Amino acid sequence: MDSYINNLLEINRERQAELGRSPRAIVRTFGCQMNVRDSETLEAMIINMGFELINDENETDIELILLNTCAVRENAENRVYGRLGTIKRLKNKNPLLKIALCGCMAQQEHVADTIKRHYAFVDIVFGTFALQKFPKLLYTNLIENEQIIDIKNSQGAEGVLPQAHSHVFTHRHLAKKAFINITHGCDNFCAYCIVPYVRGREVCRPLEEILREARELAKDGVVEVCLLGQNVNSYGNDKNSGAARKGLAFASLLKSIAAVKGIERIRFMTSHPKDLSDELIDVIASEPKVCKHLHLPMQSGSTAVLTRMNRRYTKEQYIELALKIKSAVPGIALTTDIIVGFPGETDADFEHTLDVVRKVRFAGAFTFIYSKREGTPAASYEDQVPANVTRERFGKLLSVINPIIYEETRKRTGNTLRVLVDEKNGDMYKGRADNNALVHFTNTADCVGEFVDVKITQAKTFYLIGEAVKQG
Ligand code: SAH
Ligand code: SF4
Ligand code: F3S
Q1: Residues near 107 by Cβ (< 8 Å), separated by ≥ 6?
Q2: Ligand 2 atom closest to residue 194's alpha carbon, by position in its atom list
Q3: Are 9 and 139 within one domain?
Q4: What does each C-alpha distance from 469 to 412, 421, 438 come to in angstroms?
Q5: What does the pLDDT read at residue 244?
Q6: 421 Cβ below 6 A of ligand 1
Q7: Among all ligands shown, which has an atom nearest to the Cα of 310?
Q8: Looking at the structure, do residues 422 and 436 belong to the same domain, yes or no?
Q9: CATH number (domain holding residue 226)
Q10: pTM greater than the 0.90 cutoff
Q11: Alpha carbon of 192 to ligand 1 centroid (Å)
């Protein structure tokens, strides 16, 4: 184990004697599953340092607060700055409290500058490339008590794999489900997006390493894995692998994971439409372990906007692909991401977005208002759409897409869906069906962590309600 973790454990043992309880830590995670996965690694480090992980925000007796941040939209960053305001008050009450900021937002130079200038009480700022250095940074700060900022991009131009995240060293939140990183970073440079700048160049983890992780997770009782990458379809296309043809490597990776005994469900995100291969469609259709759900971000329905976004597909290509998948995999749930108000978007462009929504009929969607990100090409586009126009389009989009999502969800009523149960909430159990539908249901016996057949009795826009077929 990291020698800094051992040093911190020693320090925390002494503090435990003084405090009469374990030192406590809180980790707050913003953003996407990549960050959730990173937090699992950070939480494992924190536990091994001898902290007790707690969840209560209002707790005053805390020794460490770590914010793992997201930079994808301005409001994600504003929430973090807001949180820092509250934390400052805690720090005033308890000078021994250590505050650390990490993740995508922290990776940006201008954020580090702001923290240096206006948030001197933040002890440590470290970026996405310094994840594994957290124990060293915390130890050094404890000894020297000076603000540390480590946001170097250690990849260089060539792109190297950040130090492997070992699953052994992770604090999984659910016993039966796990994330597996298959790629890090992104090379697509969509004109609006900050991710390539804060996560670096795309690198694929070696197939053998991913398979070893899947096997060990299965041994540990995990039955569902979710493969993570900014664009999983480009897995194996990097210069380090010999994959012969686009998309082929990801399809065969899915087949190899499906062969792992004990893994019963495989999910993945996210798929970029430009790299989605026929082989992948075949695997989703034919491999029972691969879930019948595809998240396929469209971003816009206008070819002109898509071109300026650097998405590298047209409206027609997107529709054709989506409909091809729906007919090849009956019952598949297709979900998407849509951005409204990208610079230069006209009313006619926006109508194309609505047109795609009506033609494809998504089972779910994340809808976003375009947010200007410093350092991305689109931030300097001149024709930014006025906020009131964007707001109006956003409302219109919701009024078109939500009834469609409801209709698609409602089709599942009367069906019996196999649900992997995540948690119990009040009287209801909550879990996901193969098609990723969220299902709330009743059962007379405890079934958290199990697969349960649930008869669907009612549909809401964003979830289904049902009852276990075999009670007890
Ligand atoms: N790699 C994934 C997406 C990661 S970001 C993909 O390509 O699909 C998740 C979503 O956030 C994107 O799909 C996009 O819809 C949205 N997004 C990214 N940058 C944004 C910005 N500047 N403003 C608004 N939404 C944005
Ligand atoms: Fe961002 Fe595009 Fe990469 Fe997704 S594919 S992370 S939207 S640059
Ligand atoms: Fe994810 Fe946000 Fe970073 S969406 S990759 S946590 S910028």
Answers
A1: 71, 127, 128, 129, 151, 153, 197, 198, 199
A2: 1
A3: yes
A4: 15, 14, 17
A5: 44
A6: no
A7: 2
A8: yes
A9: 3.30.750.210
A10: yes
A11: 8
